[in-house]
Amino acid sequence: MRNIIAVAGKELRAYFHSPIAYLVMTVYTVACGFVFYSYVAIYLEDTFRMQMMGGAGGSSPSLNEYIIRPMLEGFLMVILLFLLPLVSMRLYAEEKRSGTIELLLTSPLTDLQIILGKFLGTMALFGMLVVLTFFYVGLLFLYGNPNGKPVIASALGFILYGGALLAIGMWISTFTKNQIIAGAVSMVALLLLYVLVWVRDYATGPVGQFIANISLSSHIDNFAKGVIDLGDVCYYVSVIALGIFFTARSVEALKGRP
Amino acid sequence: MIEVQDLTKRYGPTVAVSGVSFEAQKGEVLGFLGPNGAGKTTTMRVITGYLPPSSGKVRVAGYDVVEEPLEAKRRTGYLPELPPVYPDMTVVEYLAFVARIKGVPRREIKKRIAETSERVAITDVQARQIGQLSKGYRQRVGLAQALIHNPEVLVLDEPTAGLDPKQIIETRELIKNLAGQHTVVLSTHILPEVSKTCQRVVVINAGKIVAVGTPDELTHRLQGYETVLITAEGPAEEIRERLQRVSGVNMVEPRGASDGRVTFEVHSEKGKDVRAELARAVVESRWRLLELKTSGLSLEDIFLKLTTRDLGEMTADGQPSGPN
Prior knowledge:
The complex is a heterodimer.
Chain A: H1 2-17, H2 19-53, H3 63-88, H4 90-98, H5 100-105, H6 111-143, H7 148-173, H8 179-195, H9 199-202, H10 206-214, H11 221-225, H12 230-255
Helix pairs in contact in A: 1-6, 2-3, 2-6, 3-6, 3-7, 3-8, 6-7, 6-12, 7-8, 7-12
Chain B: E1 2-11, E2 14-24, E3 29-33, H1 40-47, E4 55-60, E5 63-64, H2 69-74, E6 76-79, H3 91-101, H4 109-119, H5 135-147, E7 153-157, H6 165-178, E8 183-188, H7 191-197, E9 200-205, E10 208-213, H8 215-222, E11 225-233, H9 236-245, E12 249-258, E13 261-269, H10 275-284, E14 288-294, H11 299-305, H12 311-316
Parallel strand pairs in B: 3-8, 3-9, 6-7, 7-8
Antiparallel strand pairs in B: 1-2, 1-4, 4-5, 9-10, 11-13, 11-14, 12-13
Helix pairs in contact in B: 3-4, 4-5
């Protein structure tokens, strides 16, 4: 455990030594702020219109449905498809290019400790993004009265989703010395996995259903509704576990080469 | 301390190292000498556990690098050809990280960093970012990294490559001071380097060991004699004296005896083939000649491929330093 934390700490510090952490957090904060502001504006507009039209009972529309859900379930998930590869692309590519992979692999660490350390390091950075996100959501609690349970479920879903993206990105990063290639391939791969759910619209058979269920975006709905479904949790945990497993295989293969 | 037995390493169809065996005793500095591409780095990577061997056994401090990799790695310090440093980190941050992953107890990390920095003379740059350091300092940070957990075995891959003459001399002094406390294996393709730093040399070429000996022995051998191995059946001492009298023979050294058979290594003047004379001497004395062969490997050919000019030495003599 101590080794895992040492590696994780090194990774996290590396993000703040380079522009990556600042870039990712800035872009994310701006995007998050804009989306949040837009949804709040639409919400106010609609509330105003509803009161003008009927005013029956004066009940305002749900904050969860109007702001929290579309924000977490839609736009921010897409933003992460582009931002998290920037975080995961350097994990192995940079170590391979600078030769520091030799330091890690000749230290008394197991491969799994290195991989988990790296993964935790990126998760810590992603955790900061999650905190930023829920800072905005927290504002709603301060001034409005949203339903708390879906928010907790959403947070869990959001973290699992980010973890899945990072695990896949880490695996892709083991294949190349070039960070740009690792980042670009990760973006394309993740984007494809994200839109795979479209298959559901035109393919109806069991195969189509299966393919659609592989999609990264097909398991987030329940979380956003406030339902923690075991199947959905299993899906994301499996993707993370597979990413870590494939990374381990890939590192193993790395050692056979000069 | 280090035992390598019949090590072979293949990359796909290419054989990088084939049937290499050698040992390094405790406290010894063992030089690994060979031209570029001879398999030095591959051998070192197997010793440090970076690459798995295709076949053969490697034990470090008594631990097999395949079966007990963590124990072996805990006792090994490794400086690859390119120092494995993170340019974004400061020297202290870097050494603290390495100390942690090498298993130095938390309480001792500070002390170990101070001691090691002192030892390789980087105390004055501790707070600087590694990326801003000169090549020589970066090399020393790499050495500090290898020493931080006080390993029993140190593996240094071309520790003086790319340094300027003054730095080369300093690094060699440093390595000499390490001997005794650590077992050191270092590789180089510079011939004079081994005589300056190593007690024993393994010469490797095209993945195979071609000679083992002290630097003096090897230099002597290089400076000119032919080597013939002769095996005969008869009284060892008499055979030896007879061989010694053959004209052109400089030295006769026993190389083992079993079942009344004795093998000698015969050194003769350069350019002179004494095989026929040796055979006649043995047969005429009515001993039985069993085998007679040149030792086959021309050390000279291999040494020709080595860099014989020493950058550090030349500038010390006041001559211009040439490309190395």
